[in-house]
Design goal:
- By secondary structure, the protein is mainly alpha-helical.
- The protein has a domain at 4-78.
- It has helices spanning 4-19, 23-32, 37-43, 45-49, 59-78, 105-108, 147-156, and strands at residues 91-92, 101-102, 121-124, 127-130.
- Helix 1 (4-19) packs antiparallel against helix 2 and helix 2 (23-32) packs parallel to helix 5 (59-78).
- The chain starts with a helix and ends with a helix.
- Residues 68-78, 110-126, 137-148 have a biased composition (Basic and acidic residues).
- Residues 68-157 are annotated as: Disordered.
């Protein structure tokens, strides 16, 4: 049951709405309050607020109030919460602050291991290096000769 002060404020606000005094603020205040179902039936809140729901200013708060009361009514009738419980979704932890992604079937597949290749090793200045070549060659920057150097090379040749 709601506290007496809550019931008293609900009654005052409903009387303001019924009398037509400051309807907008009264309805917005009612939308915030938790109105017990028994009190709503006694004060006939649904009958008072339904004609006002066509107003664009009051449509949102009135819809909130009626939705709360409907939910309480369904909960009381069925003994359960009217909202369905959501099933949990397994998620994979993300890397570097990205959004979390759903686990796909590809993640759970076993990755085949590739046997390491035996490559001949060469020693250069006490450092062990392999004879691998890059798949894509690095483009090393080439130094462009200035026009003066080109003339000197042409004269010398």
């Amino acid at each position: 049951m709601a506290p007496i002060s809550n019931a008293a404020t609900v009654e005052k606000l409903i009387k303001k709405v019924a009398d037509g005094d400051d309807i907008v603020t009264a309805v917005k205040s009612l939308a915030v309050l938790n109105i017990p179902l028994k009190l709503a039936v006694d004060l006939q809140i649904v009958e008072v607020l339904t004609p006002l729901s066509s107003s664009p200013l009051l449509n949102g708060p009135i819809h909130e109030i009626l939705k709360k009361l409907e939910g309480k009514r369904e909960k009381e009738n069925s003994g359960k919460s009217p909202l369905k419980k959501k099933t949990s979704i397994r998620r994979v932890s993300s890397t570097k602050g990205g959004s979390k992604k759903r686990r796909s079937s590809l993640v759970t597949k076993k990755i085949q291991e590739v046997p390491p290749k035996d490559e001949p090793l060469e020693k250069e200045n006490c450092k062990t290096t392999s004879n691998r070549s890059r798949l894509f060659k690095k483009n090393e920057p080439t130094k462009k000769d200035s026009s003066i150097w080109k003339r000197i090379k042409n004269v010398q040749a």
